[in-house]
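Kindly review this record before class:
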Amino acid sequence: MNLRLMRNAVSNLMGAVVPALVALGTVPLVVKGLGEAGYGVYSLVTAIVGYFAVIDINVTAGSVKFIAEHNAREDRDKINQTLFFGIIVYALIGLVGGLGLFFGASYFVNDVFTVPAAIVPEAVATLQLAALGFFLGQLQTYLQSVPQALMRYDISSRIEMFFGTLVPLLTVGVLMLGYGLFEVILLRVVASSIHCLILWAGIRRLLPGLAFRWAGAAVRRELLGFSAYSFLSRFASLSYAHADKLIIGALVGVTGLAYFTVAATLANRILGLTYRLSGVLFPAASALAAGGEFDRLNRLYLTANRYVVFLNAAILVLVAVFAEHILRYWMNPDFARNGALVLAVMAMSQFIDSLTSLPSLVNDGMGHPRVSGLFAVARACTGLVIVYIGVRLGGIDGAAYAHLAASVIFTIAFLGYVHGRTVRTSLRDLLVHSYFPTLIGVATIAVAARLADDRLAPTVSNFALLLMATMVLLFAHGMLFVIERGDRDAAWLKVKKALGHARGKPA
């Protein structure tokens, strides 16, 4: 794989890994500080704010694509037009959504969801404060994408790592000082405002000739034309991602929502990390397609899929097989009893969803966002019906199985449709080159780990030993059968050079 692309992928991944580890590590303390009902309300507020993000018309995706192309052509005027048009759009989205959240807060808390009467006033005030956070979050999301469009993931990732690490730690500190939910959200609002200012300073350094330019008709048409279908995809994805929590909050209550959210968040956080590896392929695919380098794009696509699928499959094994152990030692036995099945099933669902990440990015980078947008809408509409039925029939466990069923159906449909059409690579090449070398070995290791876990006594030492053995087997499989020889040799050469420099000798 291209060395620069690899560096961007690693930078993008690290920008998410460290914050995710810190966030997950602080969850038990946050749950303890807020209480299970309070954490349920926190999850509900987060879900409502996230749901309001569906009004985002996804100019971000168009901006990343076209800023990458304009930068390759060194067209600074077009970059300025695109960038400032995006800022204006996201400021308006943040304003509209923020006002809706502020004035609708009482209705959501009192009339839609099941919230204990004692915490209703705090829930309303918190949601109203979150309205300001929504406005800042929209600007933050857009500004974060600009360094990425310029292939400077190192800058955006460092900033993200800093705030993603600091905010969860400060959240725990706020709770330890005796403050509650309102103060936690206030902290996040303040952090988001500072985040935006730092991102803007970084963008100005990357683009020294940056100056306001009103977007001409051609730029607006280009951006909005691409973003129209990209918006469908984002709208549908966000609706589907947050609606399950809203359904559970309405039908089961905030305590059940807390169990589901902790388990689902863990699966989403961990398996979502490798999406950061995939994300760097979007501007790269746009640039390669613009230059007509389709053979190079095909090779990159197959190799990237091979690595990302392996990483996600390896993570799936560790999370799904050891779900009960993870929740017991991470949270407490109560969460293990109520959330282990949810965690295992949601991990499988997330893995299956991850199979569409690279195909979707390349499809969009090739200029076909309409396809991914329409599939996302179909998946959201059908999936939400399945999730509603699942919650009705089986509570939070039913919600998890519903997610898995929807993932299987639409992943098969999407992969079958795009390959050989909007994505030039055939489905057969994808399966043979990228999937089979990974999945056969990983599935064998998963079965062995599951059988061993069933036969061993449930002690901390046995869990630690089995976890370590499973990780060693997964690593060995990856090194021997997944990583391509050229990449393995290049990586080893970099290690030898690094060791040589460390010793003050040439390698």
